[in-house]
Design goal:
The chain contains 15 helices and 15 strands. With about 450 residues, the protein is an alpha/beta fold. The chain has a single domain, classed as Glycosidases (TIM Barrel, Alpha-Beta Barrel), CATH 3.20.20.80. The protein has an eight-stranded parallel beta barrel with strand order 2-3-4-5-6-8-11-12, surrounded by five helices. Strands 7-9-10 form a three-stranded mixed sheet, with helices on one face. The longest helix has 25 residues. Bound molecules: beta-D-fucopyranose (FCB). Beta-D-fucopyranose (FCB) binds next to loops. Pfam families: Glyco_hydro_1.
Length: about 450
């Protein structure tokens, strides 16, 4: 049997984000972020932990880049901490913050690893939140100034830029459900925040291009395929609404279609928007958000089955996240559903027609640790990657312009409100000693990266 070969210039990589790995929260002039504040608030993070130390990557980046090199990693997606670069949110640039990313980028380039930088992976400077955060238009302006400072400094070496990671999470988890920083529960504010996040993406795009000639820039959305739980009209309507809230609310404006009208109607009916609708949208905003992008980043983890009625098994959540038996869930409680990656890529390709797509995150949480011989036999993660990569390969064969794939994550790290208990890494981290141990999945991916192909035979578990 021949392995599934990927296109010749396919970009393979691994991903991380700054708050989840860097630590050094108070070093070299870094300002407070909304995640520092949120994590320090009792009851917000499951194990009471924070990213204050995390994987200590700020001090160990040389070792971490060498580790990536040893695993044949061709590209690395990381994020830049706004509060390191502009500690007060706007105004003075902290040279030491920029220097860190400059050293990281140089080390990557020396190792032959292509940097993909994300400008916002959720760590807003707390001072801006104190002024209203993403529900204020001024925050979008401040983001553009911060982005400009970063790109001016790194744009000679970094050519691949992602403005935002998952604006759905930044707005809805942060301001509607309050389970992420800043922990606000106010749906009306969340909708306004989503617009300002998208607006800041659109405003930043030309600024990135101006300061980085030859830049390739885009945004990363977390997309989830959804299905109605039954044929009933009520389940279908719940499905339409959930898909609108989660997927279309972001996909549509980024692709020049404005905000979905059915959702604007729903939000007005729910009292989350005034009767006049999206009053925060000013002339030119929608055009800005639809700035031509070189790619769309897609983060894929699982699917959702949507029903209209609350059911006890789903803890009164009208959404069922999974149909599969519990044994097949990852430790996040997320169903393993590789076909959902195929469905997502095909949907975006067929309905939105982006120039290119990258899977900017895909991965799974299993807590397998080192055995007596010091090996980490994470067979389920190997199977997860193998099956999702086959799904990605199938989407390419069916025409989807998928140009790259980044595994989440390089190493175990701070999983937000879930703390350190959830391990997504292909490299195990011992948080006591900071020892890094590549897992079986790292060896598996190292071979995929080297072969530019995914095995079709049954990979031994
Ligand atoms: C995504 C986030 C990433 C990580 C994974 C598991 O939503 O972008 O930081 O937490 O989920």
């Amino acid at each position: 049997m021949t392995d599934h070969a990927f296109p010749e210039d396919f970009v393979w990589g691994v991903a991380t984000s700054c708050y989840q790995i860097e630590g050094a929260a108070q070093e070299d002039g870094r300002g407070e972020s909304i995640w520092d504040r949120f994590a320090a608030t009792p009851g917000k993070v499951i194990d009471g932990s924070s990213g204050a130390v995390a994987c200590d990557h700020y001090h160990r980046y040389v070792e971490d880049v060498a580790l990536m090199k040893s695993l044949n990693v061709p590209a690395y997606r990381f994020s830049i901490a706004w509060p390191r670069v502009v500690p007060a949110g706007r105004g003075a640039v902290n040279q030491k913050g920029l220097d860190f990313y400059s050293r990281l980028v140089d080390t990557l380039l020396e190792a032959g690893i292509k940097p993909f930088a994300t400008l916002y992976h959720w760590d807003l400077p707390q001072v801006l939140e104190d002024e209203g955060g993403w529900s204020k238009r001024e925050t979008a302006k401040a983001f553009v100034d911060y982005a400009e400072a970063v790109v001016r400094h790194l744009g000679d070496r970094v050519t691949d830029w992602i403005t935002h990671n998952e604006p759905w999470c930044a707005s809805m988890l942060g301001y509607e459900m309050g389970v992420h920083a800043p922990g606000v529960v106010d749906k009306a504010r969340a909708i306004v925040a989503s617009h300002h996040l998208l607006l800041s993406h659109g405003w930043a795009m030309p600024v990135i291009r101006e300061h980085c000639p030859g830049a390739r820039a885009g945004i990363t959305l977390n997309l989830q395929p959804m299905e109605p739980a039954s044929d009933s009209a009520a389940d279908h309507d719940a499905w339409r609404h959930s898909d609108g809230h989660f997927n279309r609310w972001f996909l549509d404006p980024v692709h020049g279609r404005g905000y979905p009208e059915d959702m604007v109607r729903d939000y007005i009916a729910g009292g989350f928007l005034p009767a006049e609708g999206m009053t925060m949208v000013q002339p030119g905003d929608l055009e800005a958000i639809a700035a031509p992008a070189d790619f769309l980043g897609v983060n894929y983890y699982n699917r959702m089955i949507i029903r209209s009625e609350k059911i006890p098994e789903a803890q009164n959540d009208p959404v069922i996240r999974s149909l599969a038996p519990k044994e097949e869930w990852t430790e996040m409680g997320w169903e393993v559903y590789p076909n959902g990656l195929y469905q997502t890529l095909m949907r975006v390709y067929l309905h939105y027609g982006p120039r290119k797509m990258y899977v900017t995150e895909n991965g799974c949480s299993y807590s397998t640790g080192p055995d007596a011989d010091g090996q980490v036999p994470d067979a389920r993660r190997v199977a997860y990657f193998r099956d999702h990569l086959r799904a990605a390969h199938r989407a390419i064969a069916d025409g989807a312009p998928l140009a790259g794939y980044f595994a989440w994550s390089l190493m175990d790290n701070y999983e937000w409100e879930r703390g350190y208990g959830q391990r997504f890494g292909i490299v195990h981290v011992d948080y006591e000693t900071q020892a890094r141990t590549p897992k079986a999945s790292a060896e598996f991916l190292a071979k995929v990266f080297a072969d530019n192909a995914v095995p079709v035979d049954e990979t031994p578990a």
